[in-house]
Amino acid sequence: MEEEEDTSTDLYPPVGRNKPHVDLGTLMRVTTRPRKVLKTTNAYFYWVTREQGSFDWFKGVMNEIADMDQRNIIEMHNYLTSVYEEGDARSALITMLQALNHAKNGVDVVSGTKVRTHFARPNWKKVLAKIASKHPYAKIGVFYCGAPVLAQELAKLCHEFNGKCTTKFEFHKEYF
């Protein structure tokens, strides 16, 4: 997600002496401190799963997001890893059927959503390179929930890109 930084000031109201009870744990003095406000301009969502059935519990949310995103701020990608990658002869037929059905009906045959499903794993290096080229000098939050092995790969790629381009990736992870 691309974020723009904005600094503003918060002014906390003074706590009066005439208050009947003030919890000392929440007592705050008047202070001025800068606060970062992040303005998200784009979000890129990647749902990667091994099993086609995993799309079922999430497809309502994906369709709602696709319908509500009138300004094309959110870019969604589904990946099914149990199928050979696109371009492989073994997945050519399903890829063609999927593309035809999506073009004609606007629904993906694999996920049952408006989001087209890609096959195999995402090429994360290409994904980050594409995002970096679209958002030079931006700070991008990369949020990941999944297996630790992929977390290590993504953290390493973020670090590599931070050293060679103007876009800065901040990696955040959550294990399940």
Core attributes:
176 residues; disordered N terminus; alpha/beta; single chain; globular
Topology (SSEs and partners):
Blueprint lengths: L1 E10 L20 E18 L9 H10 L5 E7 L11 H14 L11 E3 L4 H11 L4 E7 L2 H17 L3 E7 L2
Parallel strand pairs: 2-3, 3-4, 5-6
Antiparallel strand pairs: 1-2, 1-5
Helix pairs in contact: 3-4
InterPro entries: Fe_red_NAD-bd_6, FNR_nucleotide-bd, RBOH/FRE
Organism: Aegilops tauschii subsp. strangulata (Goatgrass)
GO molecular function: NAD(P)H oxidase H2O2-forming activity
What's the short version?
One of its GO terms (molecular function) is NAD(P)H oxidase H2O2-forming activity. The chain has 176 residues and is of the alpha/beta class. The protein is 30% helix and 30% strand.
Taking all Cα atoms into account, the compactness measure Rg is 22 Å
- Provide a count of the helices: 4
How far from one another are the termini?
21 Å
The parts where pLDDT drops under 50 for at least 5 residues are 2-31
Strand content: 25-35%
- The computed structural class is alpha/beta
* Elements, N to C (H/E): EEHEHEHEHE
Helical residue percent band: 25-40%
Shape: globular
Domain Ferric reductase NAD binding: 36-158
GO cellular component, one term: plasma membrane
Keywords: Oxidoreductase
Pfam family, one: NAD_binding_6
